[in-house]
Amino acid sequence: MNGTMKARMTEGAVAPMLIRLTLPMIIGVLGMVAFNLVDTFFVGQLGTLELAAMSFTFPVVLIVSSISMGLGIGMSSMVSQAIGRGDRHDVQRLTTDGLALALLIAFAIMLLGLLTMEPLFALLGATPDIVPLISDYMTIWYLGIPFMIIPMVGNNAIRATGDTTTPSMVMMVVVFVNIILDPLLIFGIGPFPRLELAGAAIATVIARMMTMLVAGWILIVRDKMVTFERPDLKRVLSSWRTMTYVGLPAAATNLIMPVSLVVMTRLVAGYGATAIAAFGAASRVDMVSMIVTMALSSVLSPFVGQNWGAKRRDRVLQGITYSHTFAIGWGLLLFLLLLPTAPLVASLFSDNQEVIAIMSHYLWIVPLGYSGQAVLLLSNSVFNALGRPLHAASLTLTQMLVLYIPLAFIGSALIGLDGIFGAALIANTLSGTAAFFWLRREAGKRVQQPATEQEPPVLASTLS
User: Fold this and answer.
1) Span 302-317, pLDDT tens digits
2) Above pLDDT 70, what percent of the chain?
3) CA distance 188 to 166
4) Other CB atoms closer than 10 Å to residue 262's CB: what's the count?
5) Using the 8-state DSSP alphabet, how is residue 230 labeled?
6) How is the chain split into domains, by residue range?
7) How far, rounded to the nearest angstrom, does the alpha carbon of residue 338 sit from its chain's CA centroid?
8) Cβ atoms within 10 A of the Cβ of 24, count?
9) Which residue in 39, 225, 395, 402 has a CA-CA distance of 20 to 30 Å to 213?
C-alpha cells in the first residue's frame, strides 16, 4: 500500500473551502440534534412526567457524548496532522488504536452507568415517581453505549481526511430510522407493543447500531484507514498517549458543560416539574440554534490540523479570521429570529402554558449570548487542533465554573428563573470575548516561531 496520503484541505481559497466543507456537516450536526429532538417530541406526547424524565437524562447523555467527542477530537487532530504530513501508516495506526480505546471506554461507561443509575438520578433531583420512568429508558440506553461511542470516534477519523459528506449522509439515514421506529415502539402502532420510554431507547440503540456498521465499512473497506497487522503493545500505548494528549483535556473540556448542566438541572428542579421540562426543552433549542456553528467547528479541526501538518500557517490564520466573523454575525441573527418567535417555538414542545411561559423567557434572554458562545466553540476547536487543549479547557472552565454556576445561584436567589437564564447570557458573552482575543494572540505567536519549535513535545515523538 502506498505510504503517502493526500491532504485535501491545504490548497485553494480558504473561505469557499470552509463553506463547502461546512454545508454537508450542517446536515450531519442537524442529524445529531434531530436525533435527540425526535425522542423529545414523541416522549412529550406521553405527558409532562415523561418529558421531565427525558430532561433528567439529558445531562448524562451529554456527559457520554462529551467523552466520545473528546476522544474523537484527539483522533481527528492527530490523524489530520498525519494526513498533512502524507504519512498513511501513522493514519492507520492512530485510527485502529483509537477505535480500540473507544471500545474499552464504552464498556467501562456502560458498567458504571448500570451500577449507579438510581442513586445518580435521585441526586439530580428526580422524584420517586420519575425515577422508574428514567430507569425504563436508561437501562436500555446504557446497554447500547458501544454503538454510540465507537461510530462517533470513527466519524471523526473520516472527517479528518476532508470527507464531511459521508458521515453527514449516514447520520441523516439514522435519524430517519429513528423517526420511523420511535412512534412504532413508543405508542405501539400496528403489531408493535406499546413500550413508551423503553421503546424510545430501543429505537435509539437500533439506529446507533446502523451507524457503527456503516462507519466500520467506510473505515475498513473504502478508505482503508484500519490496519489488521499484529499490534505491538508499546506502539499501541504510544498511539493512545499521542491521542490522549489532546483527547483527555478535550474530553474534560466537553465534560465541564454537562457537569455544569447537572448543577443547573438540580437548581431548576427546585422550581418544579414544569420548570425542568421547560429548561430541558429550551436546552435542545440551544443545540438546534448552534447547528451551523457546531458544523463549522467540526470542519475547523481537520482544516487546521492538515494545514498545520503541511506547514501552511497562513491558511490557519485565515481560517480563524473567517470563522470568528461568521460566529458573531450568526449569533446576532439567531437572537433577532428568536426574539419574536419564542412562544411559538415553545409551543412546539408542550401545550402546558406554564412550560411555554418559562421556555419563552429563556429564549428571550439566553440567545443574546449566542455570538459569544459560538466564538468560544470555534476557538476551542482551533486550540485543540493546534495541540493546545489546556487553553480550550481553561476557557470553558472559566465560562461554566467561574462565571455561569456562581452567577446562576446569585441570579436565582435575587430574581428567580430569569436570573439563571441571565447568568448564561453573561457567561457566554464574557468567555467568548476572552476566547476571541486569546486565540488571535496565540496563533499569531506560533506562526512567528520557527517550524521546529511549534509542535508540542508529544507530537514531536512521532509514531515510528
Assistant:
1) 888 888 777 787 888 8
2) 93
3) 33
4) 20
5) P
6) 14-447
7) 23
8) 19
9) 39
